[in-house]
Each structure stands twice: as C-alpha cells, then as structure tokens.
Amino acid sequence: MTKTKPNRTPAAAGGKRKPQLARPKPLRSGRNIVPQESIAGSALVLVIAIMTFLACLALGAVTMINDTASKWQSDISREVTIQIRPFDDVEMEQAIRQASRIALSFDGVSKVTALDDAATARLLEPWLGSGLDIKELPVPRLLTIEIAEGARPDFASMHTRLENEVPGASLDDHRAWVDRLTTMALTMVAVGTSIFVLVMTATVMTVIFATRGAMSGNREIVEVLHFVGADSRFISREFQRHFLRLGLKGGLSGAFAAIVLFVGLGIWSSNSLATPQGDQVAALFGTFSLGWFGFSGILMVMILVAFLTAATCRLTVRHQVNGLQNYRLVR
Amino acid sequence: MIKFENVGLRYGLGTEVLSDLTFQIAPNSFQFLTGPSGAGKTSLLRLMLLSLRPTRGIVRVFNREASSILPRQMPLVRRKIGVVFQDFRLLDHLTTYENVALPLIVRGRAESNFRKDVTDLLDWVGLGDRMHVLPPVLSGGEKQRAAIARALIDKPDVLLADEPTGNVDPPLARRLLRLFIELHRSGTSVVIATHDLGLMDQFNARRLVLNQGRLQIYD
Ligand SMILES: Nc1ncnc2c1ncn2[C@@H]1O[C@H](COP(=O)(O)OP(=O)(O)O)[C@@H](O)[C@H]1O
Ligand SMILES: [Mg+2]
User: Fold this and answer.
1) How far is the CA of B94 from the centre of ligand 2 (A)?
2) pLDDT attached to residue A145
3) Quick one: pLDDT at residue A21?
4) How distant is the Cα of A213 from the closest Cα of chain B, in angstroms?
5) Is residue A198 in a domain?
6) Residues 90-149 of B with CB under 8 A from A
7) Which of A192, A292, B40, B52 is the most buried (most CB within 10 A)?
8) Range of B122's domain?
9) Domain boundary among A167, A191, A208
C-alpha cells in the first residue's frame, strides 16, 4: 500500500512539546538488527573454530600420508637392480652386455648402468681393503636399471628371461617390498580419508546444529521483525549477514590455527632433519609440508564451513518466518 | 476492515474460549474491547492480527478471507496493522529510538527521511530524553510508551492495542488515550483491549464486551 509522507504524528495535533534537547549522540540507523554480541554467537564461533581446526588437521594429515606413500612407491619401484653371480665358464663382460640388452628391450626401461670394476671395488673396499683386482675375485656384479617416470615395465617376464638366458643373473625389483608398502600406504590413505570424511561429517552436523541453536535464541527477534512488517527477504538477509560473519570468524581462526601448526611442525622437522630422530620422522611422515593441495584444501574447508553457517541460518529463518507468514501454519 | 463470521476458538482440546463471534471493525472506527481477565481479549486480538487461526468461522481482513492470503502477501497485511503487545516485545539490544523506528527500517526507508517523525513521536509520548536508552533500563510505563510509539509510527490502517495503559499512572493513561483518539481522527481504526473502566469512561466509544466466550456489542 502506498502512504504519503508520514509526517502526521499526533504530535502535530496536540500535546505540549518538550523543548528540543541538544542530541550529541548520532542516531543509529539500526543497521545491526541482529544482536552482534551474544553468548550463543560466541559459542557458535568457538564451535566452528574447533571443528574447522579438526577438519583441517585431518585434511592435512591425509594429504601428507598420501604424498609420503606415493613418494615411497615411486622411489622404491624406480630402483631395480640386476645381480650377476660369476660362474666359472661364463665370461662376465658378455653376461653383463646380454643382461643389459634384455633389460633394455623392455618398455619403460630408459637406461641400464653396469657398475664398472672400479665402482665395484669401491663398493667392496670397506670389506676387502683397497688395491684389489676385481677381475681375480668371484664378485657378483650389479647393474642398475633406470625406469622412465611413471612406467611399470613387465618385471615378471624380465625376471624369467634373465634367469633363462643369462646364467647367474637375478632381478631384484623389490617387488615384495613394494607390494607390502603399497598395501600399507593404500591402507593408510584409506584410513586417513575415512577419518577425514568422518570429521567433515561431524563438522557439517555440528555447524548445522550449533547454528540452529544460536538461531533459536533469536526467534523472538524474528517474530518482532515479522510483526512490524518485515518480509522474509529482509529478515533472512539480516541474519544471514551476521551468521556468515560468525562462520567466517570461526572458520578463519580454526584454519589459521591449523596452518600455524603445520608450518610450525614443518620448521621443526626441517631443523631436526639432520638428527637421526628427524630422519626417522621424515621417513615415516614425510616432511610436514602441506603443499599447494593441503593449503587450498584448508581454504575450501573454511569456505564450506562459513557457507554452511550462513545457509543453515537462512533455512532456519525461512522456516521460522514461514511459520509466521503462512496462515495455514498458524496455530 | 476486519470482519468475523461465526468465529470460534479453542486451545487444544479445551472448551471454546471464544464462541460465535460475529462483528466487524469498520474503517476509521474506535472501540474498546473489554471483559474480565481471562475472557479472551488477547486471544481475540491475536485472531484479528492473524497470528492465531480460529477453530471455526471465517476471518476477513481488508476484504480478504484470511486463509486466502499468501505467505508472501502477509508482510503487506502486517504493515497495515499496528499492534501493541501486552508484553511490549521491544528488542532489548536496540535503543528506544531504533525500536520505534523499526517498522520504518524494515520497510527500507532512509533514516534521514524518518528521523524527525520518530523523534517527534518520542517527544510526544514523553520519551524524548530516553531515546538512546536500551529497553531493559526503561520503566514499565516507558516500555509501554515505546511499544505504542512503535505501533503508531507508520500510521497503520488498524491499531490493535492490548492493555496499552496497564502500566502507567492515570494522567499518562489519559495522555495515551488522547494519542489513540488523535490517531483515530486521522483515519485509523483503533481497537483497545482494556479492563480499565476508568479509561473507558473518558471517551464515549463503541464497546465490545467479552463474557464467557460470547461477545456483546454496545454501540
Ligand atoms: N496459548 C494458550 N494456550 C492455551 N490456553 C490459552 C492460551 N492463551 C490463552 N489461553 C486461555 O484462553 C483464555 C483467554 O485468555 P486471554 O485471551 O489471554 O484472555 P485475556 O487477555 O482477556 O486475559 C484463558 O483461559 C487462557 O488461559
Ligand atoms: Mg490479555
């Protein structure tokens, strides 16, 4: 309905006026219709911060496990050696050449290097002393195979061919070791991912319930706004703005704490990398570096949490307002 | 403006609190709604405010059957009805000024346009120097005046006031009654629920009397 300028307070018609007082305080325009400081609001921020922190920790841990596991696998599976044990009637140099040829004939093998006599002697020096002539000793010789990045040559048939065609040759592709590590790494990644999914689910649900809890304390405000004529859009906009802020505040603090923790651990681990414990820690857990993926993941968690807070608030307000607006739903 | 046809109301499974109400609130009319405590005055006001649905009968507001009003149209209906709740319902985190300005704020008016109207009205109800105070600091009578000012500020078509003089002394009650009469003269229909006979004696107006769920009308 249209109204003309509402300059028609009954004051115009009667009653004595008070003298106009000087009003030093500016009149607020009522921008914050939703109370900014409330116990429920602070509690919500804290809950959001804690859950974001936990979710970020889980995410970071999974990222690190993932990185470490895939590094193990690629490091080890790229280290393949052929060992040739000397036989009386076999010319060693020829056996080496033949083994190299066989190895190189497989896809994915980029280079085969035989440890030459000098290198082998150097390798054996701690046991046999210096100045020995390797040719006079029945020392097994090693060939290292370099595998192209990402390739998985058919080690099984390489193994068979070497054994059949080169006497005394054996292929060590660390297969059992790699298989075990792969299984372990995959298990760890699966466990880590499940934990992350669980933590994320708990985070989502906690944020939803905590937001609804904080909103229920505002029911009275929603009602008053409705009765003075506010529409659904106005009311949800006011609340959403406030709750988005709460969500961002909580999410930022939680994510920030998690990042500080990871960076701190990273610095600590790189400082102690020289020590034996540091080496063990690095071997087991990687280097606490979150990397690009981890950081963007944390950012995503934070955004998700803030968005979720605002969206839950919006839905709750809509629901409450609808209960007031919809005559059919009125008791 | 507001029309009731054979309206009955019961809470839950209890007996009918209100029975067979048939009456109307004409445009630009003034009436007292009276009856002993517990007679159903608040309930009847809530029915008129559409914040309660009758168990039977038909409620019409502004020539529309209430049940045909769509949810998104409801705010527009609310804007034509000013209401003074018995328990005031001021927002405790907003100042008196902001509480009174609230109906205008939610309508999207700019403060520069309504500031003077709000301060004038606050001065008139005697809250000129309590403008920046939060409601918890106000006395019962001051809260009441703030609640009345909030209901009046946008000059509603209908004003529903529940015991609006319940917390003030007689001189102020007279003053507030003058305010309602003034509002009525400027075109608003006024319904004042009260059990204060002294107040009703001060102004000769239509009386809706509730007794044991029934309504008697003394024009
Ligand atoms: N929400 C409610 N639930 C159940 N009974 C109610 C409710 N509100 C009011 N009543 C009952 O309805 C009757 C009328 O109450 P009310 O409308 O508040 O009367 P009044 O305002 O005239 O004092 C009373 O008996 C009261 O107990
Ligand atoms: Mg009452």
Assistant:
1) 26
2) 83
3) 45
4) 19
5) yes
6) 90-91, 93-95, 97-98, 101-108, 111, 114-117, 119-121, 123-124, 126, 128-129, 131-132
7) B40
8) 91-155
9) A167
Q: Which of A2, A227, A329 should we substitute to test contact with B (largest number of B Cβ atoms within 10 Å)?
A: A227
| Smallest CA–CA distance from A12 into chain B, residue | B120
Contact B150 A331 (CB under 8 A): no
Tokens of B101: 């300005």
Query: How confident is residue A122, by pLDDT bands cut at 50, 70 and 90?
Result: confident
Q: Which of B36, B37, B52, B76 is nearest to B4 (CA)?
A: B52
Looking at ligand 1, which atom is closest to the CA of residue B36? Answer: 22
Contact B97 A27 (CB under 8 A): yes
Beta strands across the sheet bearing B158-162: B81-84, B158-162, B189-193, B30-34, B206-211, B214-218
A81 in a structural domain: no
Q: Quick one: pLDDT at residue A10?
A: 43
Name the least confident of A158-162, A247-251, B92-96: A158-162
Give A152-190 as a DSSP string: ---HHHHHHHHHHHSTTEEEE--HHHHHHHHHHHHHHHH
Among A108, A142, A167, the domain boundary falls at A167
Q: Say how far residue A196 (Cα) sits from the centre of its chain.
A: 9
What are the chain A neighbours of B175 within 8 Å (beta carbons)?
Answer: 15
Q: Which of the four pLDDT bands, split at 50, 70 and 90, describes residue A126? A: confident
Between CA B189 and CA B181 the distance in angstroms is 10
Q: Token pair for residue A144?
A: 């290292």
DSSP for A3-64, please give it. Answer: -------GGGTSSPPPPPPP--SPPP-----S-SS-HHHHHHHHHHHHHHHHHHHHHHHHHH
In this structure, are residues B4 and B45 in contact, taking their beta carbons and an 8 Å threshold?
no
Structural domain harbouring A248: 39-74+179-325
Other CB atoms within 10 Å distance of the CB of residue A77: 21
Record the pTM. Answer: 0.76
Q: How far apart are CA A8 and CA A52, in angstroms?
A: 53
Is residue A14 assigned to a domain? no
Name the CA radius of gyration of chain B, rounded: 17
Atom 14 (ligand 1) nearest CA: B40
Size of interface A-B (CB pairs under 8 A): 141
| Assembly ipTM | 0.94
Q: Determine the pLDDT at residue A6.
A: 42
The answer, yes or no, to whether any atom of ligand 1 lies below 6 A from the CB of B11, is yes
Beta-carbon neighbours within 5 Å of ion ligand 2: B 42
- Residues A326, A322: Cα–Cα separation, whole Å: 6
Tally of structural domains, chain B: 1
Residue A12 has pLDDT above 50, yes or no: no
